[in-house]
Structures are given as structure tokens and as C-alpha cells.
């Protein structure tokens, strides 16, 4: 059982829930849940894409620990690989199996989804091996992983996807902001990158609000306002005192609040009942976050 828990810890279950919310946001953005689609299309591809993102995100985060094992030996020796609970070889097999599972299920949905899954896989591996070591390219690289994941959700309707593909820039900016904050998670930070991330957060909030206004969906504010509070409260504390523990809390909030951001996307797309369902993933993610590390 300890080994099983070790493998689960490597995959960051709380984070995986946020990846599922990406898919549901993408599905809603292309109008799948609208009155013109809901009665005519099967939910099977949505289910396949949700399973796909579980594998893709889980596999990507496992390889994060595989590539960081020497650093974790110094900074986080309690993690499964540096502690000796899981070998690096076994972790690599586990991560590879999850990525393969994700790609297979994406291709079962449709070819466009399969291509998006391959892009998620490539972006995750490039980030884990090289991207994270670059001050500027690293956050962009990490943001691309979420952008392609949102596009993976949009690929449920390949013909409609190009019309909304530009919105994938929003999670790129958001995750770039979270990644910038995370650079100070262990040793602390200066205030400059935290202020930069706060500005990027504001860009994201305004982008979603603008999209909701275009769709005449004021109901999105019921999700957008809690999202803003959830991300800014710990960030303000970190700016006031930019030490590792407070920055870590800001990063954790940034990751978990993706669920609220995606609920806002769903509401802005006109599917507010589905948005409530997405928002209800947050308690599940918070419960898992108390049992498994988020960062």
C-alpha cells in the first residue's frame, strides 16, 4: 500500500482534477453543451478526453519528479524517488504508461484530439527536461501545456475548434504567471516577479470577463469573482513577505483555482449548470491537496 501511495503522490491527484476542468472548459467554449449540440451528440468523446487528460497530466508530472530527482534529494528528500520508495526507473515506466494511456484515449476520441495529446506530451517532456531551467522560456513552456490541454477539450468538435483556438493564449498567460511565482517557492523571491504575476492575473481575469460580456453571460461573474479572490489573497500576502512558505501557498492557490477559472469559462460560454458542476470539483481537489502535494 505504501508503494501504491507513492505512485499516486508522483501523479499529484489534486492537480489532475484541475486538468479535467480544462477539458470541460474547452468542451463548453466550442458550444458542445449548448442547445444546438447537447441533444444530438454523444458524451462519449467528452469522457474519452477526460480520461486522456488524466493520463497526460499525471504522466507529465511524474516525469517532473524523475528529472528533478537530484534536486529533490537536497530540497525535498521526502518525495517518493529521493526517499527510495520508488526507483527512478519504475517512476519513468509509470509516467510513460500514463502518457501512452492519455494519447490512446485522445485518438479514440478523434484524430485532432490525438494530435493535441501529442503536443501536450511533447510540451510536458520538453519543460521537464529543459524548459524549467530557462527564466523566461520556462513559464511559457509550462503555459503551453495548459493551452494544449484546453485545445484538447475544444477538439471534441474539430470543425468548430479553430474559431475559438485563440483563447488558448489565456491559460498560457495564467500558468506562466503561476510558474513565475513558483521560482521562489524554496528560497524566497524578490517582489518584482510577484508583481509581474499579479499583472498577468489581471490580464486573465479581464480576458474572461470580456469573453463573457461578448456572450452576454453576466452569470460568469459568480465564478470569476471567487476565482480572483482565491488567487490574489495568498499572492498579496506573498508580496508583502516574499518568503518560501507564503510563496508556496500562492502557488498552490494558483494551481487549484484553475477549477474556478474553468468554471468561469464554462459559464461565459452559456452552460452555467455545467459551470456549477465544474466548480464542485474544487472541494474534491482541496481534499486531495490535503493528502497529496500540489507542487
TrEMBL record:
GO terms for cellular component: membrane. InterPro entries: Prenyltransferase_related, UbiA_prenyltransferase, UbiA_sf. This is Polyprenyltransferase. It comes from the Bacteria. The chain crosses the membrane at residues 12-37, 43-63, 137-158, 164-182, 194-212, 218-236, 271-289. It is a multi-pass membrane protein. It is found in: Membrane. Its main location: membrane. It holds the Pfam family UbiA. Keywords: Cell membrane, Membrane, Transmembrane, Transmembrane helix. One of its GO terms (molecular function) is transferase activity, transferring alkyl or aryl (other than methyl) groups. Coiled coil: none annotated.
Amino acid at each position: 500500500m505504501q508503494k501504491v501511495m507513492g505512485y499516486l503522490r508522483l501523479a499529484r491527484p489534486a492537480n489532475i482534477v484541475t486538468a479535467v476542468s480544462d477539458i470541460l472548459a474547452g468542451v463548453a467554449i466550442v458550444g458542445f453543451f449548448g442547445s444546438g449540440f447537447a441533444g444530438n451528440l454523444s458524451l462519449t468523446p467528452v469522457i474519452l478526453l477526460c480520461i486522456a487528460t488524466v493520463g497526460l497530466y499525471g504522466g507529465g508530472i511524474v516525469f517532473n519528479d524523475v528529472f528533478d530527482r537530484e534536486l529533490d534529494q537536497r530540497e525535498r528528500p521526502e518525495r517518493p524517488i529521493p526517499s527510495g520508495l520508488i526507483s527512478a526507473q519504475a517512476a519513468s515506466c509509470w509516467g510513460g504508461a500514463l502518457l501512452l494511456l492519455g494519447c490512446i484515449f485522445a485518438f479514440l476520441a478523434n484524430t485532432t484530439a490525438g494530435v493535441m495529446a501529442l503536443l501536450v506530451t511533447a510540451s510536458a517532456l520538453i519543460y521537464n527536461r529543459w524548459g524549467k531551467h530557462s527564466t523566461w522560456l520556462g513559464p511559457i513552456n509550462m503555459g503551453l501545456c495548459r493551452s494544449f490541454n484546453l485545445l484538447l477539450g475544444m477538439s471534441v468538435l474539430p470543425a468548430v475548434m479553430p474559431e475559438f483556438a485563440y483563447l488558448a493564449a489565456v491559460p498560457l498567460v495564467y500558468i506562466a504567471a503561476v510558474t513565475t511565482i513558483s521560482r521562489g517557492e524554496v528560497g524566497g523571491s524578490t517582489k518584482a516577479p510577484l508583481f509581474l504575476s499579479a499583472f498577468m492575473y489581471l490580464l486573465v481575469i479581464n480576458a474572461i470577463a470580456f469573453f463573457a460580456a461578448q456572450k452576454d453571460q453576466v452569470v460568469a461573474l459568480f465564478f470569476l469573482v471567487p476565482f480572483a479572490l482565491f488567487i490574489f489573497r495568498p499572492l498579496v500576502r506573498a508580496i508583502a513577505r516574499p518568503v518560501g512558505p507564503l510563496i508556496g501557498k500562492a502557488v498552490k492557490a494558483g494551481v487549484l483555482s484553475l477549477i474556478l477559472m474553468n468554471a468561469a469559462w464554462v459559464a461565459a460560454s452559456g452552460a452555467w449548470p455545467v459551470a456549477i458542476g465544474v466548480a464542485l470539483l474544487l472541494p474534491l481537489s482541496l481534499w486531495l491537496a490535503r493528502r497529496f502535494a500540489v507542487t
